[in-house]
Every structure is written in structure tokens, then in C-alpha cells.
Amino acid sequence: METDADAGTVQVKGLRKRFGSVTALDGLSFTLTPGQVTGFVGPNGAGKSTTLRIVLGLDAADDGEALIGGRPYRALSTPLQEVGALLDAGAVHPSRRGRDHLLWLAHSHRIPVRRVDEVLEQVGLASASRRRAGGYSLGMRQRLGIAAALLGDPPVLLLDEPVNGLDPEGIRWIRGFLKSLAREGRTVLVSSHLMSELEDSADHLVVIGRGRVIADTGVRELLAAASGDRVALRTSARTEAMTLLAAAGATVAATDRDALTVSGVNAEKVVQLLAGAGVPFSEVSAHRATLEEAYMELTGDALEFAAPPVTGTEAS
Ligand SMILES: Nc1ncnc2c1ncn2[C@@H]1O[C@H](COP(=O)(O)OP(=O)(O)OP(=O)(O)O)[C@@H](O)[C@H]1O
């Protein structure tokens, strides 16, 4: 990897792009920093692929610019060593063997052949590397695509929907792998239209909708804000607990036969009140929102294809 401090920084500045009457990008700006997995999230059609294509010099912006290590993609002298990308895992010719595909890439970019075997090993494809790509499963094609992105040992990795179509084992593998790449100090961007896919892997999120940034935030901060002061409570005496907590000024909602969500009173106070009144309980914990909940709260109706909100008791 390069040691240049700026090599891993990706800057997207005021990108605009129209396709006929469709505004795909409407003044999009964000910066990616090294050492983090950034989730690039938005519903279908939000503009994720268009952004990545522009960053990678495959499409031209109408306005604005995208810089990798301070330079536009076309100005990079050794692009594969500066940015690795996975855009379309199906792009490998089916009759080509996995290893040959990487060898061809390595030769054409003056990358040493030993890197081919290193990356095949790294993505867990070494034993299947002499098979033709046409016989690969989707998961194996994704791994080959990631191997190609890693070939030049770049400080920046941009992966468009790498989890798409993977089985649970493949998803688990990719999450851990992306995190380990970020821990090595690389800048990792992974796009997805499903927030749940980024649970446990993203450190930072850039959420977009209709070609604009809706949120640019740390995952921890987002979850803390979405979790609010809600407390989850498990009790076999639901009615008594509800009456007691409501009398103390809390707002209480039943979420299950023996579970309540309490807001307006913190966990410590809930324990104090229940214990003081002799109401039995088996669990009191600060409610931790899921990334999906936080996302819905954040984006609300900003999303083009959001489902109508579920209200009242249906939400439980
Ligand atoms: N080559 C093109 N010609 C016309 N319209 C396009 C083209 N590429 C993208 N668009 C439109 O631009 C908008 C943004 O598309 P884009 O593919 O960037 O979204 P996305 O967030 O990647 O969506 P998905 O999750 O479905 O991949 C959409 O309305 C799309 O239909």
C-alpha cells in the first residue's frame, strides 16, 4: 500500500448527472476516509451506481468532480494500484478460468504474478481458481471480482452491492473480510439498497435518496440517536408494570406478551420503581435500535420507494 496520507481519501464534490429528463445526481458531496468501511446506502435508483461509475471514470458528470487521492480517476498513473472496484461480478468471460482472468489483469497492469495467487488465497478461491468462471456460483464470482479489485493492493476499494445474491455464509465472510481490509488502513466503500446488509460491518454511512445525501454519519452515532431514551422491559406482570410506570410519567407500549418498551424514564429509574413496588421483572435494558430502524427514522418519506408507515399497535 502507498504511504501517502491522502492516497486513500475519496472526495465527491457537488456531482450532478442527468439522463434525459431523469436527474440521477443532484449535487452529491461526501468524503471517504481511510480505515473505515463506509456503507453507501439508498433505495433502487437513488444514484449509487451512477456515483461509482463517475468516481471510476466510466461516466462523466455534468457538473462537480470526484477525486481519488486528490486526483480524478483519468489522472491516476497506475489505477489498479490506487483503487480497486467491483461493479459487475458477472463481467468475467464464462470460458475463462478464474486464475487466467486475474493473470491477464495482472499482466496488463504490470502487477507481479505472485499477487494473483495471494489474492486468490485471500478470498478463499485458490482451490477453484483453475475452473472456468462460467461454472462458478454467484458467490464465487463475487469472490473473483473482489480478488480482481485487490490485485493491485490499492488503498481504496469501491464495491457495488457485493453482498447481492450471497448466501448467509457468503455474507458473513464478506462482512468480516471488509472489516479486515479497513483495519489494514484501507478506504472501503460498499453500496447496498438494504440497510440490514450493512449491520455489523459499516463504521460510517452515506445515505442517499434521489441523488442527494440524506445523511453522512457514524453508525454508532446514528444508532444512539435512534435508540433515544427507550428502555426494553421483560416482566410477567405486564399490567402492573404499565400502570406503575405510567403513573411515574413514562410512556409505555406493550411489544409482546411479556415485553414493554418504556420511554421518558431511564433504565435505572425503571428498575428502582419496579423493585420498590415489588413488581417482578426478568430483564431491563436500554433499547438498541437496529440499523434498519435507524434508517427508516432517518429517511422517512425522503425515499422514493418507501413503503407506507406502519402505525399504532400494528408496529409491534
Ligand atoms: N444509462 C442510463 N440511462 C438512463 N437512465 C439512467 C442510466 N443510468 C442510471 N439511470 C437512472 O438514474 C437513476 C439512478 O440510477 P443508479 O443506477 O445510479 O441508482 P442505484 O442507486 O445504483 O440503484 P440500484 O440500487 O437499483 O442499482 C435511476 O433513475 C436510473 O434509472
From TrEMBL:
GO molecular function terms attached to this record: ATP binding; ATP hydrolysis activity
The superkingdom listed in its UniProt entry is Bacteria
Q: What PROSITE patterns is this protein classified in?
A: ABC_TRANSPORTER_1 (PS00211), ABC_TRANSPORTER_2 (PS50893)
Residues in ABC transporter domain copies: 10-235
Keywords, ordered alphabetically: ATP-binding, Nucleotide-binding, Transport
Q: Which family does it belong to?
A: Belongs to the ABC transporter superfamily.
What this protein is called in its record is ABC-2 type transport system ATP-binding protein
Show the taxonomic lineage: Bacteria, Bacillati, Actinomycetota, Actinomycetes, Kitasatosporales
